[in-house]
């Protein structure tokens, strides 16, 4: 798999450092609260586990699975809710944990869904933010890294369900997905 990577953007150590930084800030911001952490499957699962271990607050954890890529390298624009939450978010502080914010469509969908369910406060923590890819104006409250407008994989991010287990984030060689 490593041979399919054009270059590494963020090493294991870079990611550990960002996770620690974000965990400390989230601990401060959620002190005295009991947020529901919503991990967006599958990509954010590794990041979610690592970041909540750095949060010294009581919290609840839930998962949601949405899809807009459908195996490709670009968002289709259509958001499908594949698996819904188990927890009731009404009146709760919610932290959405994402692997990457690209077009913003999925995040907008999630924020609107949670608002319709009467969440008290909805914030977003993403390992990666790709502002150049934005098609929808959305706010990201906590960001590990800004990434260039390239196709990245690793540390939970995939191409056609592959590369999630790489311990770093790297740019996938275009010839891998252009064939």
Automatic annotation (TrEMBL):
GO molecular function, one term: nucleotide binding
Assigned EC number: 2.4.2.8
Stored InterPro entries: HGPRT, Hxn_phspho_trans, PRTase-like, PRTase_dom
Keywords in alphabetical order: Cytoplasm, Glycosyltransferase, Magnesium, Metal-binding, Nucleotide-binding, Purine salvage, Transferase
Entry-linked Pfam families: Pribosyltran (PF00156)
The Phosphoribosyltransferase domain, residue ranges: 15-159
Full protein name: Hypoxanthine phosphoribosyltransferase
UniProt organism field: Paucilactobacillus vaccinostercus DSM 20634
Organism taxonomic ancestry: Bacteria, Bacillati, Bacillota, Bacilli, Lactobacillales
